[in-house]
């Protein structure tokens, strides 16, 4: 549902919306480069998240989207010259779901999970040990963009739903470019199609049709306000290949990857949606619309037969777009 998402992003100083794993509203979860507890505000809105508290949600959201991330990582692996990657930076690694995936897809590489939240890096380390990857997956506590030049060189830099949490996105890309080895690939996961979970018409007693579309429009406004409050915010045309070229890289392809979980969605998806819709309600995205507020209340009610936990028509359909560029 969200215009942008995250389920794997928490390593940047500016506070932002969650999705990874760290999502805006109900949409995307990938958790990479969001700072936390910065206290930026816009009117009555506070762009302030405690990523440690959100760690379980970020982890579950990233696990749900694991097949999508694997497809993207395998495509990126095919763009590298032989012998492949020796070192991978996962920028805004969140709870490490994608970090260990990258270690699997790039079997000869050291993967460094970069994040600004210690609790999330602890989860990453624990996950790596559980999967016998502790010798190849390390963690780095760092806040970006200031610490980018301390991260060392890499053959692959994965920035999943993290760049949009940095005020000056072009400057951040230039910093990533400095970290890339010749022939290396920067993979930028930004944009796509917002997630959908419910029919357009929820039925009698559930308000007007188009609930998710209205929330998406309001989230887009919320996201724009969040971006404007970031330190050093610079407005850019979100032509990601053009920005990658301006940062000194040669674009090497853009692809979108589909996540399609048809109805009836499994319980793990429904539970994640209840948390996400509850956050939508807490953001007051109903904006005084009594029927939308009532519909939200019913959707998150575990006992309501029209709620997300019990409806037979709940699904998850979304697309994530990955933009890649190579250092010549």
Briefly characterize the structure.
The chain has 328 residues and is of the alpha/beta class.
If you had to describe this structure to a student in words, what would you say it looks like?
By secondary structure, the protein is of the alpha/beta class. The protein has one domain: Rossmann fold (3-Layer(aba) Sandwich). The protein is built from 9 helices and 11 strands. The protein has helices at 55-64, 66-77, 97-105, 118-130, 169-179, 211-229, 240-246, 267-282, 290-299; strands spanning 9-10, 31-32, 40-42, 45-47, 87-91, 110-115, 137-141, 154-160, 180-196, 250-261, 316-326. The strands form 3 sheets. The chain has a 7-stranded mixed β-sheet. β8 (154-160), α5 (169-179) and β9 (180-196) form a beta-alpha-beta unit. α2 packs parallel to α3. The longest helix is centred in the last third of the chain and has 19 residues, at 211-229. The radius of gyration is 19 Å and the shape is globular.
């Amino acid at each position: 549902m969200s215009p942008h998402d995250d389920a794997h992003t928490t390593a940047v100083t500016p506070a932002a919306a969650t999705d990874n794993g760290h999502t805006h509203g109900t949409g995307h979860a990938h958790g990479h480069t969001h700072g936390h507890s910065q206290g930026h505000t816009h009117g009555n809105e506070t762009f302030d998240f405690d990523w440690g508290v959100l760690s379980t949600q970020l982890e579950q959201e990233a696990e749900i989207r694991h097949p999508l991330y694997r497809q993207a990582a395998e495509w990126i692996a095919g763009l590298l010259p032989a012998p492949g990657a020796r070192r991978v930076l996962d920028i805004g690694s969140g709870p490490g779901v994608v970090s260990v995936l990258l270690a699997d897809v790039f079997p000869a590489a050291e993967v460094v999970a970069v994040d600004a939240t210690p609790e999330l890096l602890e989860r990453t380390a624990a996950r790596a040990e559980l999967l016998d990857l502790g010798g190849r997956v390390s963690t780095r506590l760092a806040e970006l963009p200031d610490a980018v030049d301390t991260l060392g060189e890499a053959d692959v830099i994965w920035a999943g739903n993290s760049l949009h949490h940095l005020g000056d996105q072009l400057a951040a890309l230039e910093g990533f470019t400095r970290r890339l080895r010749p022939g290396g690939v920067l993979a930028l996961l930004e944009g796509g199609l917002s997630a959908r979970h419910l029919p357009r018409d929820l039925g009698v007693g559930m308000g007007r049709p188009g609930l998710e579309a209205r929330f998406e429009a309001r989230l887009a406004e919320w996201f724009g306000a969040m971006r404007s409050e970031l330190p050093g915010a610079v407005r850019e045309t979100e032509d990601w290949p053009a920005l990658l070229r301006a940062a000194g890289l040669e674009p090497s392809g853009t692809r979108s990857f589909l996540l399609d979980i048809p109805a009836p969605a499994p319980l793990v998806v429904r539970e994640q949606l209840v948390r996400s819709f509850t956050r939508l309600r807490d953001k007051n995205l109903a904006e005084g619309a009594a029927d939308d507020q009532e519909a939200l209340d019913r959707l998150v009610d575990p006992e309501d037969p029209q709620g997300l936990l019990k409806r037979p028509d709940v699904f998850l359909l979304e697309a994530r777009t990955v933009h890649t560029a190579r250092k010549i």
